[in-house]
Amino acid sequence: MQKRFKQLPLACAGIVLGLTLAGCGNLSKIDSQGRSASPVWPDLSMAMQPKGSYPDLYHLSMVKAGMNKDQLYELIGRPHFQEGFYVREWDYLFHIPTAEGETLCQYKILFDRHRTARTLLWRTPACEEAAKLAMRNVKKPS
């Protein structure tokens, strides 16, 4: 009986460790330079903000490789998907204005092993083009 009680904390610790490590994974296989040959896009139903957000286009235009997570968080906010702890990719759902109104686009940032942004991706070429056009037409705030 006493042996069982001694093993219980060890078993609980193993479960907690397993769950913690399961949350540390990335969706995509990212190399140490912050690149992925085949990025994996999360299912839209898994978004913490399933309707996405309307990014400040001026701030979005300032996002670039070489920024750290704090700088990105300040510009475009927290990621819209729960990837876990110490992840090296952030995923967003952004409403991007178009000539027809707007489109919902997935945006991904991949980080290198030092947690510096290295790769910025739009899920579709149409979203990338819409975002480029929208950011080109944005005026710098006064």
Automatic annotation (TrEMBL):
<protein>
    <submittedName>
        <fullName>Cell envelope protein SmpA</fullName>
    </submittedName>
</protein>
<keyword id="KW-0261">Viral envelope protein</keyword>
<dbReference type="GO" id="GO:0019867">
    <property type="term" value="C:outer membrane"/>
</dbReference>
<keyword id="KW-0946">Virion</keyword>
<dbReference type="Pfam" id="PF04355">
    <property type="entry name" value="BamE"/>
</dbReference>
<dbReference type="InterPro" id="IPR037873">
    <property type="entry name" value="BamE-like"/>
</dbReference>
<dbReference type="InterPro" id="IPR007450">
    <property type="entry name" value="BamE_dom"/>
</dbReference>
<feature type="domain" description="Outer membrane protein assembly factor BamE">
    <location>
        <begin position="52"/>
        <end position="118"/>
    </location>
</feature>
<feature type="signal peptide">
    <location>
        <begin position="1"/>
        <end position="22"/>
    </location>
</feature>
<keyword id="KW-0732">Signal</keyword>
<keyword id="KW-0472">Membrane</keyword>
